[in-house]
Amino acid sequence: MVSLWGSKKDGNTSVHNGDGDDNRPASVGRREYNHTEPDERSSLLPRRAPPPTSDGYLDPDDPAVSPYNLWSVRFLRYFTVIFLIITFLWWVLLLVSIFVSPPGMHSRGSGFFDFAYTCLTLGNLLVAVLFFAAPAKAMRITTAIVAVFLLVDMVIILSVGRIRAEEGWVGIASVVWAAFIAIWCVLTDRVVAWGKREEEERLTGRPETRRTVKEWLAVLAGTIISVVFVIIVIFMTGTLGIRTRDSSLEMFGERIFVDGNKYQVHLACIGNVTTTHGKRDPTVMLEAGENPSEYDFEHWAYNSYQNGTISRYCYWDRPGYAWSDNAPSPHSAGMSADALSEALAISGEEGPWILVSAGIGSITSRIFSSRHLRDVVGIMLVDPLHEDLLHRLASPGRGFLLWAWGIISPLGIERLGGALFQGRTREDRVYGRNAYQNGKYIKAQLQENLVADSLSKNEVVSARTIQSGDTPLVVISSGIKCRADSEWERKQKDLTGLTDKLVSWDVVNKAPHEVWTTIDGRTIMEKRLDELVKQAGKVQLPNKK
């Protein structure tokens, strides 16, 4: 029997050296062994022949058994990583555009939908990269469902004119990219599963049906995340359906492109132009507060029109409110005043104007007045916001909450719940009590927050210094607000000195911030408006060339 290290032959001991020379004397072998130091090429263990029962296949747990052996799998992973980098850069750009609009990237809508689609795309790619080597049928099915809903969203955005205009090329590109990536992830997972099976059959003799605990955990995590993505995209599709429904709501007035045709604002006028003693009667220009003009505030003006107190009035929606588009960021109160001026000029509307504003809208109205001194013949401020209190709107905490609320607004949980279970109508969502759920409205609030204590404050302070002292002024304040906030009351009193011709300062005892929601508030507002109209008739406007 031949031993492992040597054998007996002719009475001499020979040594196997692994090179086929088995007949050297043992002394020579020992001499070479003693004087030759091993290096990195030296075999530390003797070479063994494979067991007689071996079939030549690798163990299924051998690291060499991997789908990465196939060039097609490596190709897919390479491009998946590239897509992930591209999507991340696009995600960063969209995040920045919420606060500062890059040139050419302004969206007339809120911009939250394209950001949401990009977040979903980023999530799909991260799942694909993290669980690339652990393909699973459940993940393919859920990702395929996501892809189907994204294709539906793409069709809705492209086919509904109003939504297409609001989303613009940025939103369209985002949803198309999201749909493409979802399909790519399905195909990638399928190819990896095929490659894994092929390599297992080639290297181990059969496809592996077992999974390690680590693989099961990876599959479970990937599937749960994909199911969450399915739920998200279902809500987003439902919200798009609500937007489609709301886009069919008819409006009075027209949308007018402003700021170099970047976005549209809604403007409407009620009544005919009249003249008295050869002079044009003033038109009341409404500037709403924290809600769209159509929500209660315009109703009061319409009643005054029907009662004959005024002969004509106009109202508009600031960017992001009701039927108006969102403006590029940043957007200040002075920019809103300029947008109003441009819209009035394009539509052919001329003064004289009596400005009636409420709440934060009084900031825009005062800036507009200072820039149209020759045309403004009266100012009525209804529980106005003082420039020294703009810091309340500009708090970082409020800004973060608005941003967070905007980010999840594409889910439309409240909007869908209100439509399905509470009977909320299109009017409620566009300009009514649920308008605050609209992504455009949230974006407008966020824009106000970002510049309230900087750009907007500087603009209104400058406006106060150049405001004409001859303009008749009425200030009407909320009694409830004044009693609850002494600083608010002091600032209301300060605003009575905005011009030298204070007609009246009324504190309506039981009225809230929206003074016109009470009978006493509406009565006093209409009475003071009538006084402004009569005083305006005594003012001789300078001739315009």
From TrEMBL:
Region (Disordered), start-end ranges: 1-60
SUPFAM superfamilies in alphabetical order: alpha/beta-Hydrolases
InterPro entries: AB_hydrolase_fold, DUF2417
Biased composition (Basic and acidic residues): 18-42
Keyword Electron transport: no
Superkingdom assignment: Eukaryota
UniProt key word Transmembrane helix: yes
Transmembrane domains' residue ranges: 78-100, 112-134, 141-163, 169-187, 216-242
Annotated keywords: Membrane, Transmembrane, Transmembrane helix
Name used for this protein in its record: Mitochondrial integral membrane protein-like protein
Organism: Mytilinidion resinicola
Organism taxonomic ancestry: Eukaryota, Fungi, Dikarya, Ascomycota, Pezizomycotina
